[in-house]
Specification:
The structure holds three protein chains of three kinds.
Chain A lengths: L12 H26 L6 H17 L1 H30 L15 H4 L1 H25 L12 E2 L5 E2 L3 E3 L2 E4 L2 E5 L4 H8 L3 H28 L7 H29 L6
Antiparallel strand pairs in A: 1-2, 3-4, 4-5
Helix pairs in contact in A: 1-3, 1-7, 1-8, 5-7, 7-8
Chain B lengths: L1 E8 L8 E8 L7 H14 L22 E2 L2 E2 L21 E5 L8 E3 L2 E2 L2 H10 L19 H11 L6 H5 L6 H12 L2 H4 L2 H14 L10 H5 L7 H15 L2
Helix pairs in contact in B: 2-7, 3-5, 5-7, 5-9, 7-9
Chain C lengths: L4 E2 L13 H11 L5 H4 L3 E5 L3 H13 L2 E5 L17 E2 L11 H11 L6 H21 L14 E2 L6 E4 L5 H19 L2 E4 L2 E9 L2 E9 L5 E5 L2 E4 L20 H8 L4 E2 L4 E7 L22 E5 L16 E2 L1 H5 L9 H13 L11 E4 L1 H7 L1 H19 L8 E10 L2 E2 L12 E3 L17 H21 L13 H20 L3 E2 H15 L6 H21 E2 L9 H25 L23 H4 L1 E6 L8 E6 L14
Parallel strand pairs in C: 1-23, 2-3, 2-11, 3-7, 11-19, 20-21
Antiparallel strand pairs in C: 4-6, 5-6, 8-9, 9-10, 12-18, 12-22, 13-17, 14-15, 14-16, 16-17, 22-23
Classes of the chains: A mainly alpha, B alpha+beta, C alpha/beta.
Chain lengths: 262, 247, 646
């Protein structure tokens, strides 16, 4: 048969869905990295604080990570916009709705990915404003060693250094940029109940979103071969539980067991 | 048994439509759902009222003509069954049953519970076939086909084109229908030759008909009277990717 | 008034002569062809999109004719061929069990109780192998063995395995193959599809079929469609019995309207009663469901030896069961042909050995098969059939035997056609179950699919050219011709008449009464007294119909009751002809069992000296005596013997 004239690649519903899957699965990968980084917050004492803040420096300055982070921002934007376009298209396919709906055969999550995603997006904006924006553009405290010295971005406490324009100076010599104390910002934020509550509660929509999204991504990419897919499904469910739980545990410990972190 | 019905009545395509209540008693639990409607319709006819329009033909679950949305589910409460295979024993005495037509902009209502599903025919016309003229075929055993492939192709080919997948899908997507045909033919050597054109042509037509896209909720698979698997949609996606990469 | 009169002119089937294995080849070589350039100028109407219609329409469009194809369903894919379960026969001899074209031919003629045309049946057997090839190429997913080659199973009435199948959905898969081939042509613009259209009359101009009047079932509009030839593939008329395994909307209207316009109706009384259907459960029942004959391969049929045995079937010990088919027909056992199996079930139930609440059922038992093959193997073979059974009856056939009883399934009778499949109206062709068929007085299992596709793919596309070769200079058919005017007017008048009765009785109620009358007096067994009684009842019911039928609504909308009323009105007229045919055929053959003509042990008694002919009936007017035209059947290769399956 002849190939009929096709729509542009990005107009196709399946292509759009594949884009959702690719960006979504990439975001899943990011979540793993993000969580493993954040778990460093739970290392007690000065070492923990130093390690976390060094990690923050690494994440903002290593060139490859920078490139990946731009891909990440792009993925989020594409994932959101693509979802919006798809949702509008899908809504148009049924303009007169049923009087009674049972939802039989589909999960709550799968039917409400848009709402769940919106909740996650709202959280994401708050979260970025709270930490990322502050870290990059806002007023930040600087890391201080137990001896009371400022700490360089290499993690060395520099005796007698003074702070000017974000750099450490000893006797007029620039010893390089100082290390920002993101840990302290986190600690301060997570000492307030309402912030803790937002962070913990927001993990619920994330969990549901992942519960459907993880396996759905594989399905959309056609990566479904017999029994292997039930493994993917199980992995997806575990992922949807472990990742949000991991994230939620951090503010809870900061709030309820601050002494454990000293 | 006695049941209370809320039935969607719509005189023609442009009529706004509304629910009308009916009470049907003296029901034998072994009656099929459609026979219950026959009883009601014959009563309405005898009283000089307009009977409820619903479509049906084989009444044994294979032609795909019947299709009512009963209490929020296409083909009603029985899994792996068409409306004509649902019996009244699956309802409670005194139950209220809401009956609606398939809802999808690509399936416009013709009258009451009857919808126009010709979009499915046009999707098949776009590529749901093997281009072989009568008389061209080699011997039936010339190309052996692994039993596994043949039986998977068969499973996909059992689609009866009833549209329950579209009715069940929150996006009114026809992906399971398209996937069933794409998968049926893609799994057979005879269908491989035109696999690329088929998947692209059929998907394009599906979109032009105004069906939505797939969001993998799985409602279609659960409501499909022939239990066509979502695996076929995954295969369709693979075929799509393959086809696009071949450009 | 005389019931009927007899024409003294013999009807000629125009069969070729010479050695039977060369007839079709020589015929094909000698008939005329139409060049590709001329095919483009010729229009052909195909009515019906079952196996015969869809395959004919696709094949004709592939050849280059302009095809207009009509079906009453909302999609051609829904035609009732889709419901055929068991399989399709073909003389491939893939099983190496001694099958051949000749054996398939012989089995079919014998199975039809020597009431079919030898030349036609031989051709059918000959092209059967091509059908399988064609379907495989279309992607029909037939069952296969582990080596990847096609699997076969055995079916009733034969001793070889020649039945190709796709689980219990062979009809569906074959129909989808033909439907897809047709959709390809529609997509190319070579065929134009008119679904939700019902043919209500045939238009005959200067003695030739030149078009149809169709009603758009969605808008109610009447439409005129002209063509150089018309092909009817409109299936059988089993729904005259109201309860049958046919789809609810199957009807005789297209064929009957053609009959009224001059096409002879062949052997209308030859009805097939299928032995394995789910029994009737109540008076609300709208339809009967078949359980594939393939079940008889592994299931054993029995009734208790004791009358009114109150025990559950599973509690009745082996030696108190009567496996009556195995007892009466040791050579074929449970695999005797359908007519034999049906009558045997009726005999047991009439004698008081029936089971189930209605006592009108026998057991079909799989416990031996489950023991022998294991439950998994039984499930793989028959799983979907068992599921259907359980859905309907709420009983699990893996645990307790199925209850079955015969039901109307297929009609061997139909419009009479010659060897070219042309009716007595030039230019009107009839294929598939709608024609009087190659199955004689009884069709073997898995042969209906074979015949439908043979006619559509491999016979009609050749033979229609012979007729159309004369028409290459004929211009497009002008639908303003007075014949169209007259036909449309008569259709409209009839619709208005139906709507003007405004009575109280729903169509279904009257149809059910007609069906019951036919079942009682013109069903599995018939006698002169009953048939005469039936003729009276039919007249009374028809009078009642035209006096009191309730058809609500108008004709300018989707109106199912109006559709049904028109069909039932035609069923009354057909029913009369069926009874007359059954009355005149004073012999028992195949599905036609006249109680007056049976052997001492209750087997059918054929009377070849008197009735070795096709009875083709000519219409002379409503309630007028029809004229019987005889086409003598000559058997050169299968000498008629008493059909024995003992």
């Amino acid at each position: 048969m002849e190939l009929k004239p096709q729509h542009g690649l990005l107009k196709s519903l399946v292509a759009k869905k594949i884009l959702m899957a690719l960006t979504g699965l990439f975001l899943c990968l990011f979540l793993v990295a993000h969580l493993s980084g954040n778990l460093q917050l739970l290392i007690p004492g000065y070492n923990g604080r130093l390690q976390f803040n060094s990690y923050a420096v690494f994440m903002t300055q290593f060139p490859l990570i920078k490139i990946i982070s731009y891909v990440l921002y792009l993925s989020i934007i594409i994932h959101v916009l693509d979802a919006l376009v798809l949702t509008i298209r899908n809504r148009r396919a049924r303009t007169v709705d049923y009087a009674v709906k049972s939802g039989y055969g589909s999960t709550f999550a799968s039917r409400n990915m848009g709402i769940l995603g919106t909740l996650i997006l709202i959280f994401l904006v708050l979260h970025l404003a709270n930490f990322w924006y502050k870290y990059k553009f806002g007023e930040m405290p600087y890391m201080v060693s137990p001896e009371g010295y400022f700490v360089s971005q290499k993690g060395e406490a520099i005796a007698g250094a003074v702070l000017r324009d974000g750099h450490l100076w000893v006797n007029g010599v620039d010893k390089g940029p100082a290390m920002k104390d993101l840990y302290e910002v986190v600690r301060l934020a997570f000492s307030q109940l309402w912030i803790v509550a937002i962070y913990v509660l927001s993990m619920i929509p994330l969990g549901y979103h992942l519960a459907h999204g993880f396996q759905s991504g594989f399905q959309t990419l056609g990566l479904r071969f017999g029994r292997a897919f039930s493994l993917i499904r199980t992995a997806g469910l575990l992922f949807a539980i472990i990742i949000p739980l991991g994230f939620a545990i951090i503010p809870l410990i900061f709030y309820f067991f601050p002494e454990k972190l000293n | 048994m006695k049941v209370y019905l809320k039935v969607w009545r719509q005189r023609h395509a442009r009529d706004a439509g509304r629910f009308v209540d009916y009470t049907v008693d003296g029901i034998n639990p072994d009656m099929s759902f459609l026979e219950m409607l026959d009883v009601l319709n014959n009563r309405l006819i005898s009283q000089g009222e307009d009977p409820i329009a619903f479509d049906h033909d084989c009444r044994e679950g294979i032609c795909g003509t019947c299709g009512l949305y009963i209490n929020g589910r296409p083909h009603g409460p029985v899994a792996r069954a068409t409306t004509c295979q649902v019996h009244m024993r699956h309802f409670k005495d005194g139950e209220t049953i809401v009956i609606e037509p398939w809802r999808a902009d690509a399936f416009p209502v013709i009258k009451d519970l009857v919808v126009d599903r010709s979009a499915f025919d046009r999707i098949i016309q776009a590529g749901g076939f093997v281009s072989v003229n009568t008389g061209q075929a080699p011997d039936g055993n010339a190309i052996p086909i692994p039993k596994e492939d043949a039986s998977k192709a068969f499973d996909a080919a059992t689609c009866i084109g009833c549209g329950a997948c579209v009715a069940a899908c929150k996006n009114a997507s026809a992906m399971l229908f398209v996937a069933a045909k794409v998968a049926h033919l893609a799994r057979l050597p005879q269908g491989r030759i035109e696999a690329r054109e088929r998947v692209l042509n059929m998907l394009t037509q599906m979109e032009e008909e105004g069906f939505g896209g797939c969001t993998n909720t799985g409602a279609c698979e659960a409501e499909c009277p022939k239990a066509i698997s979502l695996e076929n949609i995954a295969l369709l996606n693979r075929e799509f990717i393959k086809a696009k990469c071949a450009l | 008034m005389k019931l009927f009169s007899i024409s003294d002119k013999k009807l000629d089937g125009k069969c070729p002569t010479g050695p039977i294995e060369k007839r079709w080849t020589q015929h094909k070589a000698s008939i005329r062809l139409v060049s590709p350039a001329n095919k483009r100028r010729l229009d052909v109407i195909v009515v019906g999109t079952g196996l015969a219609g869809a395959s004919a329409a696709a094949a004709l469009a592939e050849l280059g004719y302009n095809v207009k194809v009509f079906c009453y369903q909302d999609s051609p894919r829904r035609a009732h061929s889709i419901a055929a379960q068991g399989g399709i026969n073909a003389a491939k001899n893939y099983m190496n069990d001694g099958d051949s074209v000749f054996r398939l031919f012989y089995d079919t003629v014998k199975g039809g109780d020597y009431r079919a045309r030898e030349s036609n049946v031989y051709r059918l057997a000959e092209v059967s192998a091509n059908i399988i090839d064609q379907c495989v190429a279309q992607g029909v997913p037939f069952a296969r063995e582990y080596g990847g080659y096609l699997d076969n199973r055995s079916f009733g009435g034969v001793q070889v395995s020649r039945t190709f199948y796709a689980k219990g959905q062979t009809g569906q898969q074959l129909l989808l193959g033909a439907y897809q081939a047709l959709m390809r042509q529609v997509g190319r613009g070579q065929a134009k599809l008119y679904s939700s259209h019902e043919m209500l009359d045939l238009v005959v101009i200067d003695g030739k079929a030149r078009g149809i009047i169709a009603r758009n079932l969605i808008t109610g509009e009447l439409e005129r469609h002209g063509a150089h030839a018309v092909v009817l593939c409109t299936g059988g008329y089993g729904n005259v019995f109201f309860l049958s395994t046919n789809a609810k909307n199957c009807n005789v209207t297209a064929a009957w309207r053609a009959h009224r316009r001059g096409a002879f109706f062949g052997n209308p009384c030859f009805t097939q009663i299928h032995p394995t259907c789910i029994p009737v459960s109540g008076d609300y029942q709208s339809k009967l469901t078949l359980m594939s004959e393939s079940l008889r391969n592994d299931g054993r049929i029995w009734v208790p030896k004791r009358k009114d045995d109150p025990r559950k079937p599973t509690e009745i010990p082996e030696d108190e069961r009567d496996y009556y088919l195995e007892r009466r027909y040791p050579a074929f056992g449970n695999l005797v042909p359908r007519d034999v199996a049906s009558r045997a079930a009726k005999e047991r139930c009439d004698a008081g050995y029936g089971v189930g609440p209605s006592k009108m059922a026998v057991y079909l038992d799989f416990s031996d098969a489950i023991k022998r093959m294991g439950r998994a193997a039984v499930e793989a073979k028959y799983g979907n059939l068992f599921e259907i059974y359980q859905l309907i009856t709420d009983e699990n056939p893996y645990e307790t035997p199925m209850r079955i009883y015969p039901a109307v399934h297929y009609t061997m009778g139909g419009l009479w056609v010659d060897y070219n499949l042309m009716s007595t109206i030039p230019g009107l062709y009839v294929c598939g179950e709608a024609n009087f068929s190659d199955h004689g007085a009884n069709r073997l299992g898995a042969s209906a699919l074979m015949q439908g596709l043979a006619d559509g793919y491999f016979v009609l596309p050749y033979t229609i050219g012979d007729y159309l070769a004369d028409d290459i200079r004929a211009p497009k058919i002008d639908t303003r011709h007075e014949a169209f005017e007259e036909a449309e007017k008569s259709v409209l008048e009839r619709i208005e008449k139906l709507l003007s009765v405004r009575g109280k009785t729903p169509v279904d109620v009257l149809h059910r009464k007609l069906g019951l009358t036919m079942w009682d007096y013109c069903g599995m067994s018939r006698n002169a007294e009953g048939l005469e009684k039936a003729l009276k009842i039919i007249d009374e019911l028809e009078n009642e119909f035209w006096k009191d039928v309730a058809v609500p609504g108008t004709d300018k909308e989707w109106n199912k009751e109006l559709e049904k009323a028109g069909r039932v009105a035609d069923f009354f007229e057909l029913a009369r002809l069926m009874c007359i045919d059954a009355l005149h055929r004073e012999e028992s053959c195949g599905g036609h069992f006249r109680e007056e003509y049976q052997t001492e042990d209750g087997e059918a008694l054929r009377r070849d000296d008197l009735f070795s002919y096709v009875a083709a009936w000519e219409y002379t007017g409503h309630r007028q005596s029809p004229v019987l035209h005889k086409e003598d059947l000559i058997f050169e290769y299968c000498k008629p013997t008493t059909r024995s399956y003992k």
